[in-house]
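Protocol step 4 of 6: structure prediction from sequence.
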Amino acid sequence: MFFITLVGNMTIIAIIWREQTLHVPMYLFLAMLAASDLGLSLFTFPTMLRIFWLDARELTFSACFTQMFFIHTFQDFESAIILAMAFDRFVAISRPLHYSSILTHSVIAKIGLAIVGRAMIAQVPLPILLRRLCFCRSNVLSQSYCLHPDILKLSCSNTRINSIFGLLMALSNMGLDFLLILLSYMLILKTVLSIASHGGRLKALNTCISHLCAVILFFTPMICLSILYRAAPRLPKAIYVLMANMHFLIPPVMNPIVYVVKTKQIRDKILKLFNKKKGTKNPEQH
């Protein structure tokens, strides 16, 4: 899975980087998503592989806090990028004649900076607030990697401030992102239903399938995990581990596969690249 994640996301970034025809909003946001998936996988998969292959289960608190910071930062990145992609689909379907004038390269750059800035504001305080706590309970985490709620359970100090801040950041960032994505698709659906031809409606909806898959892959496990933590706290730990792994590990693997399969332009550019490399090797074989 880790190999597929690396190759898939790096291929998408490289294809979009080198192909000038793909330097349009939809694919620039896709490159951001691939970079976010790459970052998230680099801070989750290696720890799991270290445990399973080398049986190396120990991690210092400093290293754990660092891993937690980057995991939650890239999680925040991904949520915001998926929201930006929903806005891109809304503009493309609802304002097609003004698409290129609304989503200029300058606007996309500002959106990218806003995504990074928001994540930093939300996540930088987490390790700072954790360092004021005392950890005197069990030092065994329930996951293969460090997450903020998991680390709080190890503390014997009052974690109320940490819990409230973590919850507020999750609701104001990813929770708000999800609501805005729903709003975007309600407006998209309203526009699609106003299209006269059946073929036109299907064509418009077809441009959203890949993005909808990204939304489902990212938000469904997170929402289920949040509900289970509060509604069924006594469920077997394995269920929470499974849901967390689905949230952090599956999207980086599946997103590049879905976008390659469903996006003709990306698929054609990849095939063109491989055919070009194959063509350059053939003369040497004769």
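Step 5 (inspection) to follow. The two ends are 37 Å apart (CA to CA).
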